[in-house]
Write a structure and sequence with these properties.
binds iron/sulfur cluster; TIM Barrel; two-stranded parallel sheet; 20 helices; 3 domains; eight-stranded parallel sheet; about 425 residues
């Protein structure tokens, strides 16, 4: 039991600050005294002693020790924190980590300034978000998440596109340095979407071997995988090697659900991180799509967010969210239909293309122009991520035969070439 009366030292800028501020009245009623520590940063006593055991606390009744409900295991306070923030937390599979159902997808902060990114990230913490996802390939996203270093109770995930152990080590060291951390809680092999890639990461001196070594050294907590292909994701799960799986979960890319991979992950105790809940920002309004994703067998849903408005709206949806009712399902169905015929689900079944065109990525760029209305970003993305241009298509038609959604890929690539290759 905790001593009846406590002096609570609250570090300025700590995620618990708003909790204690909001609960000051209630705590003071119980005889607790809330004191705001003007110091800021990880060097404050608050952070240094955040692992104080309850026994030690009991041995020092009345002492002015710091208490953080996110890290001390003071369940009573943690529950209150959750109630106040109204944020639901779920287990991230067998990792045992508890993650907020609304996570923070770090891909989108590439396109905002460092100051805007910091404001957004710290506000997310205040709103109860404790899971942050980034990747080595998201340019400066990791550096922008450096503002989280020194904060307790948060779970940080990053990813590497490396397929061999040496490449993984180089990426991991860069990521740790960019993030300003000594350890990454969840480290995932990024976009393992083809069978050859899965075989490569699993092979001798492959990326998985590198990840295991880093895990033994304490540099990473858990090892996961991300994929854009449901079958390859299922194969990765069957290896039993991965603690987490990051895949798209949204109403448009419903083939993930139909493939049974979510159910398989749940059965195997693999924590699912649901990315692209808004289909890359096109399945709007966001609350409909978030409620769809939250009602699936996932631990956390990580929309990319670029503004405080988007963040506040998503947090509001996540607080006390409910599954879609019949009306909501019908509305979402109409939305999907309106995108339907011409929307690439990124399943990659159309590959390989004999000309070497990375079809899904070319179509994502086309979608960024057409559905998201962001032509400049679409052109930049196209230049950076589509090495063989859409105009190289020889119209053999093989991709269309393989596309389970019957997309007129050749026509779409012509449109992509017309819009994205000018100038
Ligand atoms: S139709 Fe074009 S894009 Fe499709 S497989 Fe053939 S060359 Fe590749
Ligand atoms: S074009 Fe079709 S097969 Fe290829 S990724 Fe898109 S939806 Fe999948």
């Amino acid at each position: 039991m905790l001593p009846r009366s406590r002096r609570l030292l609250v570090a300025y800028g700590h995620p618990c600050e708003s909790f204690f501020t909001d609960f000051r009245g209630l705590l003071e009623e119980k005889g607790d005294e809330v004191v705001r520590n003007p110091e800021r940063g990880p060097q404050t006593p608050y952070h240094r002693s955040d692992r104080l055991s309850s026994e030690r606390r009991e041995a020092n009744p009345g002492n002015s020790f710091p208490v953080c409900p996110l890290v001390t295991g003071d369940l009573d306070a943690r529950e209150k924190s959750r109630m106040e923030l109204r944020m639901e937390f779920r287990k991230l599979g067998r990792t045992g980590l508890e993650v907020s159902v609304l996570g923070f997808g770090g891909i989108s902060i590439q396109s905002i300034s460092p100051q805007e990114a910091e404001n957004l990230i710290l506000r997310a913490v205040e709103l109860g978000v404790n899971f942050f996802d980034t990747a080595r390939s998201y340019t400066d996203s990791e550096r922008k998440m450096r503002c989280l270093s020194g904060k307790s109770g948060l779970i940080l995930a990053s990813k590497t596109l490396a397929r061999d152990a040496d490449g993984l080590r180089r990426d991991l060291e860069t990521s740790l340095s960019e993030l300003g951390r000594e350890r990454i809680d969840v480290y995932q092999l990024h976009n393992v979407s083809r069978r050859e890639e899965l075989e490569k990461v699993l092979s001798r001196n492959g990326a998985l071997e590198g990840a295991r070594k880093a895990q033994e050294e304490g540099l990473v907590g858990f090892v996961g995988v991300s994929s854009h292909n449901a079958q390859v994701a299922a194969d990765a799960l069957r290896t039993g090697e991965f603690d987490t799986l990051q895949i798209p979960v949204n109403a448009v890319e419903s083939h993930y659900e139909e493939s049974g991979v979510l159910e398989m992950a749940s059965r195997l105790g693999v924590g699912v991180i649901a990315m692209k809940p808004l289909g890359g920002g096109v399945i709007l309004p966001a609350p409909l799509s978030l409620r769809y994703a939250l009602s699936r067998q996932v631990a956390t849903v990580i929309p990319g967010m670029r503004s405080l408005r988007e963040l506040e709206e998503n947090a509001e949806t996540a607080r006390g969210w409910r599954p879609l009712d019949q009306g909501g399902k019908e509305e979402l169905g109409r939305l999907v239909e309106s995108l339907g015929g011409r929307f690439c689900r990124r399943c990659q079944y159309c590959l390989p293309c004999p000309e070497g065109i990375y079809i899904p990525q070319a179509l994502i760029c086309l979608g960024t122009w057409k559905w998201r209305g962001e032509p400049e970003r679409a052109v930049l993305l196209y230049r950076r991520t589509v090495p063989v241009p859409a105009s190289a298509c020889s119209e053999c038609g093989a991709c269309e035969e393989r596309c389970p959604y019957g997309l007129p890929v050749r026509e779409m690539l012509k449109e992509a070439a017309f819009l994205l290759e000018r100038g």
